[in-house]
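DM from R.C. (forwarded with permission)

"hey, sorry to bug you on a friday — could you get me a structure for this? deadline for the figure draft is monday and I only need the backbone to look sensible"
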Amino acid sequence: MQASTSSPAQPGGPSFYAALADWARTDGLVWIYLFKAIAAALLALGIAMKLDLPQPRTAMTTVFIVMQPQSGPVFAKSFYRICGTLVGLVVMLALIGLFAQQPELFIASTALWVGLCTAGAARNRNFRSYGFVLAGYTAALIGIPASQHPDGAFMSAMTRVCEISVGILASGFVSAVVFPRYTGELLRSTVRRRFSSFVDYVSATLGGRIDRSHIEATNARFVADVVGLEANRSMAVFESHDARMRSGRLARLNTEFMSASTRFHALHQLMNRLRADGSAATVEALEPYFHEIAPLFAKAGESVLTAADATHVSKQLDDYRSKLPKRVRATRDALEGRGDANLLDFDTATELFYRFVHEMTEYTATYASLAVDTHAREKWIARYVPKTNLIAAGVAGLRAAVVMALLGAFWIATAWPSGTNLVLNAAATCALASASPQPSRMATQMALGTVLASLVGMVLTFGVFPHIDGFVMLGVVLAPVLAFGVFLTTRPKYVGYGVGYCIFLCFLAGPDNVVQYNPGSYMNDALALVAAMAVSATAFAVFLPPSTPWLRQHLLADLRGGAVQACRARLHGLRNRFESGARDLMFQLSAIAGNDAAQRRDTLRWLFSTLEVGNAALDLRHELATLPEHPQYAAGTAWRVAIHAALKAVSALFERPGDARYRNALAATESAIAASHAVLQGLWKPGAAGAPEHADAPTREERHQLQRIQSHLHFIRTALIDPQSPLAAYAGSEGAPARQPNGANHAS
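My reply, with the result:
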């Protein structure tokens, strides 16, 4: 037997370099971030000490508040922190000037300001929210200690702003210079991955190679991608000119992706309904078109990934779209001759298919435009519009105000020397934890991290600092204990522990130019910090907790409210607000659901139902708004009144679902379909109820538009009776209504 010539991989062999590269892409990035965070903290501390600022620890604390693995978030947080700090400074100087001699009024006004800022942060839920957080937190951080010495309040506020600014500048410098990781690179990989994933998803779904659970998981991931891409885009503009030059196209890409994914899901759901209804002839006529889509997303048989290659795909889709109407009409004529197909189903499906191809062409063209620095598609006004429940935001602000007021009252009543730390750190905890999906858990973790920081800080302050000399030795001592906390922040399960440990270790044991060795004061401060976080965690758990069913019900009502707005609100800019708002609410609901699969599935079903009906209503209203000026199409005619009644009934159903409203919406939609069918066929006669005095048969172009109106109404009806829809629970025992009559030829 021949001996094997293979040998174990040598240390310098290819496998070693592959393992090293894999480590550099994973754990290596963690160690780089850890090194950068410690370097920025020590740099800020050294500069603040060199400038002889009174509390250099504030500069070091600021580093751990703003530091992030990518440069974009650091610059964005730094920008909004500076803005929030300046606003908080101005407000606090005003409050000190007004209420310096009235501690009760000062605490009450500060609590009110912090509550308003916390509500603003909850309302925005993006990096602008950080400006609100800091406007409230900085007011407490500067004002509460300064209120004890009003005569020196201005200088105290100025030095605190300088310390914060030093921390911000140190973070930005280290993040941009030392092994920089740019959000723009993450954006490019996200856009490329999402395009590839969506193309694969479309091909697999049209080919019947995907089950419902996979569809739900994929759509949930797409929702997270939409929200994440917008967040990263808003941060990347702080990094480079290149990112700013592509910002409009990235916003457009996100909007077009939402439209394409919504159109495709609506088409897929309709085809599932047709198959379930046994519409074999209609499905058979449509299948060849679906099989033609997948090859269009390839170039020379290979999947297209890069923006440069997407130009070819965009041209293929555009050519295919231009030939589609004529082919659909030919298929429709052949199907009409068979007599065993519901033509209205075919018309509705082909309309959705044409719109999907159109949206996909636009999406691909925008993706292809990213390959060049400047492009006409950059001129895009519509932006992602987040949606937040006003009641939830108000509750967050009220909770923060109540916590601060209670602790402030306790401080005034007891005259506790560390009461200032108790109140201002309650404000900080409420502000920082309110952005978390589980704020009570976050505040609890921060409290436990602070307990550990208190013990480590005591050892440093009283056991180590007296025995060292010079900044170099100080850095050697601080680096390993801070590195432990930074490492915790890189682990999702332990973020709260790491945040509490890093920030409050700096707060307690961060050295000042004049170090105070006072064990009693140290222990009082540590106790105040832990007590502030414990009270905040209790408030989050007891006072209208964000994870309780009440918030989920309000957010679900807001999600359904998107369909209500689609039926009623002013059309200008409505589609973009509708699409982005629905996904933003879905993202919030998924965070609340956590690992509850049943809740996540129910939320997805409501999302799909809202998007399907809402988009159909928007398409319907757009067609009605662009009808030609003719008495037969006037708003007061019977068929227009019937459509208006259908939209009103559908919006009432989504506003407050119920059995009676479901039956009313279904009946109104069927009446509207019948009325539009009558107009389409030119069946109105003079003297008929609601008919114009001289009814004319529609022209060819008008017929095309009326056919689309009928298709949108029919799709709304199919969405209402879909057994997979959450609205099916309100169908009662009536079962599916009778099939609608065949429609006229549909112009795609």
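R.C.: lifesaver. DSSP finds 26 helices and two strands in the chain.
me: no worries. The two ends are 71 Å apart (CA to CA).
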